[in-house]
Amino acid sequence: MMRWILWILSGLLLGGIVHFITILYLPNTATQNAYARISAIAPVNSVVALPAPNPEKSVLPLMDPAFAAAVCRYDLREGGIKLTAPVSPAYTSVTFYTNKDVAYYAINDRAAGRRSIELDLMTPAQKAQLPEDEDVAAADRLIVESPSETGLIVLRALASEPGMMPAAIAALSRARCESLPPS
Questions:
Q1: Residue 81 burial (10 A CB sphere; 0-12, 13-18, 19+)
Q2: For residue 102, how many other CB atoms are within 10 A of its CB?
Q3: pLDDT by residue (tens digit) across 158-174?
Q4: DSSP type of residue 116
Q5: Which run of H or of E encompasses 149?
Q6: Chain-centre distance of CA 54, in angstroms?
Q7: C-alpha separations of 113 from 14, 87, 108, 121 in Å
Q8: Among 77, 92, 97, 114, whose CB has the most other CB atoms within 10 angstroms?
């Protein structure tokens, strides 16, 4: 009897290990992740409006039809970028993702506390290269460190009712994602 319990426990342990490793490894094998889908429609370091989702087709999974969405596909190999996103009348959020679809930073209009969300995005190495006197100026601006050189910035503006969708789309159309001037 004890031998059967040992075999069952060993089988459960081995099955758990295989399951755990498979769950962690599978996302790395996906060829049509969000970054790959956006690469087909968005140039680097510019904001592109995403089409409204419908039941048949959506550029990104789990898109909410109550939000207007835009995306900036960034590449930090040549230097940092500056993101400027005017806020919409209802609610605006900005989320940063690596090229492997891992979210690493998010901010909304309430946290920004201004009429626009403005920040600089750079790698830790680029931030370390900022001049010493830049630290004083850096206190006045938000600098986000990206864990990867490429990724996505997804901007969303809420249309609290269907008639507000044009205002949400207009707010996102004024968003900018531009390369920072060399320091």
A1: buried
A2: 12
A3: 998 989 999 999 999 99
A4: E
A5: none
A6: 21
A7: 51, 10, 9, 19
A8: 92
- CA torsion, points 63, 87, 77, 44, in degrees to nearest 10? 60
> 44: number of CA atoms within 13 Å, CB side?
13
Distance CA 166, CA 126 (A): 38
With tokens 């979210």, the residue in question is 103
The pTM assigned to this predicted structure is 0.81
Q: Where are the domains of the chain?
A: 1-30, 34-179
The three-point CA angle 54-64-43 to 5° equals: 80
DSSP state of 44: B
Q: Find the angle CA(51)-CA(54)-CA(55) to the nearest 5 degrees.
A: 155
